[in-house]
Design goal:
By secondary structure, the protein is of the alpha+beta class. The strands form 6 sheets. Strands 14-26-25-24-15-22-23 form a 7-stranded mixed beta sheet, sandwiched between helices. Helix 19 packs across helix 20. The radius of gyration is 37 Å and the shape is elongated. The relative contact order is 0.09.
Amino acid sequence: MEQYLVTGMTCAACQNRVEKAVSKVPGVTSCSVSLLTNSMGVEGTASPAEIIRAVTEAGYGAEKKGAKPRGGSLEKIAEQEEALKDRETPLLRKRLVASLVFLLVLMYFSMGHMMLGLPIPAFFRDNHVAMGLLQLLLAAVVMVINQRFFTSGYRSLFHGAPNMDTLIALGSSAAFIYSVCMLFAMTRAQTDGDMEAVMSRMSEFYFESAAMILTLITVGKMLEAYSKGKTTSALKGLMKLAPKTATLLRDGQEITVSVDQVQTGDLFLVRPGENIPVDGVVVEGLSAVNEAALTGESLPVDKAPGDTVSSATLNQSGALTCRATRVGEDTTLSQIIQMVSDAAATKAPVAKLADKISGVFVPAVIGIAALTILIWLLIGRPLGFALARGICVLVVSCPCALGLATPVAIMVGNGMGAKNGILFKTAEALQEAGRMQIIALDKTGTITEGQPQVTDILPAAGVEAGELLRLAAALEQLSEHPLARAVLRKAEAEGVVLPACEDFRALPGNGLAGTVEGRALTGGSGRFIRGQAEVSAEMNEAAEALAAEGKTPLYFAAEGRLLGVIAVADTLRPDSAQAIRELQDMGVHVVMLTGDNAVTARAVGRAAGVSEVVAGVLPDGKEQVIRRLKESGRTAMVGDGINDAPALTRADIGIAIGAGTDVAVDAADVVLMKSSLLDVAAAVRLSRRTYRNIVENLFWALIYNTLLIPTAAGALVGLGVTMNPMLGAAAMSLSSFCVVMNALRLNLMNVHDASKDRKPKNALTLPADGTLPGGQENTEKPKGETEMKKTLAIEGMMCNHCENTVKKALEALEGVSAAEVSHSAGTAIVTLSSPVSDDALKSAVEAKDYKVLRVTEG
């Protein structure tokens, strides 16, 4: 998407006009214009020159972002800061001060003397024509000061696309021209000596209304511009985090250079208290780094050699020497800034309603104003009264509130997300995330830590737990199995000193054997160890209970005597259960996807508290599960953004969790910087609050115009209620301000506060068993088709990793539609869609170093 700066837009009608003009350019496939940031995003093959020409011909100005040459990321960020800079408020403040000076003088002469009896020079008191001329000159000065309303308004009118400035210009011009006509009539009456006519004509002056309308609208515009500037404060805050310099290490010397001069591979030094200049990897040093600027996490993260660091994060304790891996526009900070900026240039689906109304709003208001004047004249009311009603209609109506209702809320919502490490790629993603009815979570690395950990140590009688761990880790230290690494991590965490292991042997399908401190040690599955040592009934029972919880029990023996059992499992993340509970409290049906067997999957699902478990799903099968879930409702997929790319793309909303430095996950609509599931709940919560804020803004904008336009036209005159044009202008000036201030309330939101969570009206109604029809495997066969099954007895499977290996090997065979594997039972139940020989099944399993004992039908 190419980005452009657009100048000259003042309201929603202008935005609509630019979009229509650019959309008509051949080669443009989509165009989105933001009144809030004065930006435009264009997709397609049209050249920038053609797009800029279309905008210019529509009566506005345009410039391609990045058209000026720049030297690096600092210049790009500076350009983005310049684009967000509030230029309007200072100019409007000057206009307002100048307008007020002349308006107060005008009000003193026009109303202060007549209504309050304030003294004025005798020349003006006795010469009514001079008084009229003075009011004309003062009103004309205010009109000149605010000439932008007239140039913009009439230019848009002549281009056939009237905007809010057109309404203001027409209202103010009508009041001024009518007053000038009354001044000429009064002059003639004074020449004729008809003082009654002179006073009558003088009472119909609207010079103060013409000036007051412009001044009050300027007040509203200034408040609106100021509050609009606040909506981009989060994005501006991110830009201010960008470091300006870096300390490079070259030939043993420290050299301070601009951050744009850092190249990939350069070594740089970061002292305590300094911001990290670019993304890199720690080469030397230990420190704690505060990453709150990028992730929203206030607790510092310990860094050691080999760990990654990100630009703009704060080094708090020790000095770090790092090697640059991402520089310039590729740093994490630059990508976040770009993502938030791009999202601000897109439109939420709900904005289409406002766009449709804005497209016809101004012409309709002009028509209503003309009709109002005509009706009152036909009823027999004086021209001055009829004109006042028409002017009120023009100045009270506010298309700006409609145009700002959606983009200000989207900008604030996006900023709040960025501050908390939640990045929405588009406005549509921000709106739709809160409407998800089903959220599918990948188990490994999302609900769980993603790597096995020791959960239980059960020593045999007469054996200390520490001794069991020491000998088990000594035996496992030469193994490359994932479960072995879990035992070694536990030993390291406990500070255990490991003796050497000699004569180490890996026994495929059984376990390990070796000699430690002169003793013959063995380790592996229960079946294998029971052949080496006597295992008590109590130990067997305890191990089976652990297996039922989804854990893998590892048995260890020495010299034919059982040492004990160590249970290993991929443990839940600390906040997973709480996050899933929060999602369910918001009416979301949470589904866990896993490649584990049903027993293990159900155990993890129970611990996490998910609504439903879909087991036996291989990585390439997740997309099919998401497809089925979507048949039941709006579905989001949460994954790591790499292996889960097809599923993320298939889902209504793809959420990449734990992106860290890789924020540009192409397949995801929402990117979470941290690996916490609580951020998924926070994203849904923020989306719902933002959408509710948009609805509030649209309601206010629509109800304001619906109520005040008829009142301004004189619909309540029979009840004695009329509206002065000056009061109408004041109401209009406040309407947009109220919309923007309402959007700024989102800044007060705590995205992790679950106390106000509620289930939406569109929450799913589930069957009695609490599961979704679309989320289950379809086991019903077509009529006439018979189902064939074979059971393989397999020796050597010890963990979930073994199960997945066997499952994948069997399901790769042509004719095998599904395989349910259990390492605890030592079986694989194969469902066949066409005949497959026993030898083929046996060969597939034994090719993976497991032993097939027998194959039986059924």
